[in-house]
């Protein structure tokens, strides 16, 4: 049996917060203590030291989750959270749209809702086993159930990228996304209509 068949997805909310927190605490809040807050913000993270910024991110994501203002999918295997994938509307995740390369595209505003998929984090023992692709499929199901719209993502070409948390271009292509533009050295803007 495929390991993918053994995955389960749950929404990140007050009932699954501790699972998410335990996963991220194992990795120091992930990616410099971000706690998946970076794309929620339009500017820098308050705090003078790395520890202060990490704790601020930890508390802020906690508040967003408990107030229902963060959308993420948790992936479980054998009852343990092994991955997280974040998505939301462009209003909920404004930062990608504020980047110089993105703005230079001067894309028309979609007629329907604009969704963004920003971050994947997978426990190191489960990497390159289809976990992120499974999470992406679960995100797309949730977006469709909420009326759909234009879904955009910012994947990279390969695992050598510093920004691999966006996922890979090949994964998105497999899920029906098309490339809109290259917006960085190895980062692409991809979209799909749901």
Annotate the secondary structure layout:
Layout: E1 7-11, H1 17-25, H2 50-66, E2 71-77, E3 80-89, H3 95-98, H4 100-104, E4 114-122, H5 131-145, E5 150-153, H6 169-174, E6 178-182, E7 188-193
Parallel strand pairs: 4-5
Antiparallel strand pairs: 1-2, 2-3, 3-4, 5-7, 6-7
Describe this structure in words.
With 194 residues, the protein is of the alpha+beta class. The chain has one domain: Aminopeptidase (3-Layer(aba) Sandwich). It is built from six helices and seven strands, in the order βααββααβαβαββ. The protein has helices at 17-25, 50-66, 95-98, 100-104, 131-145, 169-174; strands at residues 7-11, 71-77, 80-89, 114-122, 150-153, 178-182, 188-193. It has a seven-stranded mixed beta sheet, sandwiched between helices. A hairpin with a 2-residue loop joins strand 2 and strand 3 (80-89). It starts with 6 loop residues before the first strand and ends with a strand. The mean pLDDT is 91.
Order of strands across the main sheet = 1-2-3-4-5-7-6
The total tally of domains equals 1
Architecture (CATH level 2) name: 3-Layer(aba) Sandwich
CATH superfamily caption: Gcn5-related N-acetyltransferase (GNAT)
Report the structural category.
alpha+beta
Average the pLDDT over all residues and give the rounded result: 91
State the distance separating the first and last CA atoms.
30 Å
The number of helical runs is 6
> Which consecutive residue ranges, at least 5 long each, have pLDDT under 50?
none
Any idea of the CATH class?
A: Alpha Beta
């Amino acid at each position: 049996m495929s390991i993918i068949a053994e995955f389960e997805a749950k929404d990140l909310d007050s009932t699954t917060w501790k699972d998410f927190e335990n996963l991220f605490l194992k990795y120091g809040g992930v990616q410099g203590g971000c706690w998946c807050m970076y794309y929620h913000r339009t500017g820098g993270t308050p705090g003078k030291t790395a520890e202060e910024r990490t704790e601020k991110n930890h508390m802020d994501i906690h508040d967003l989750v408990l107030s229902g203002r963060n959308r993420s999918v948790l992936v479980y295997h054998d009852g343990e959270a092994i991955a997280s994938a974040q998505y939301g509307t462009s209003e909920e995740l404004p930062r990608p749209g504020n980047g110089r390369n993105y703005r230079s595209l001067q894309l028309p505003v979609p007629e329907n809702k604009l969704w963004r998929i920003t971050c994947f984090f997978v426990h190191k023992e489960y990497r390159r086993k289809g976990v992120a692709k499974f999470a992406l499929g679960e995100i797309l199901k949730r977006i469709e159930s909420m009326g759909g719209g234009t879904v955009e993502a910012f994947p990279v070409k390969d695992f050598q990228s510093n920004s691999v948390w966006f996922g890979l271009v090949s994964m998105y292509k497999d899920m029906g996304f098309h490339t809109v533009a290259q917006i960085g050295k190895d980062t692409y803007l991809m979209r799909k209509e749901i």
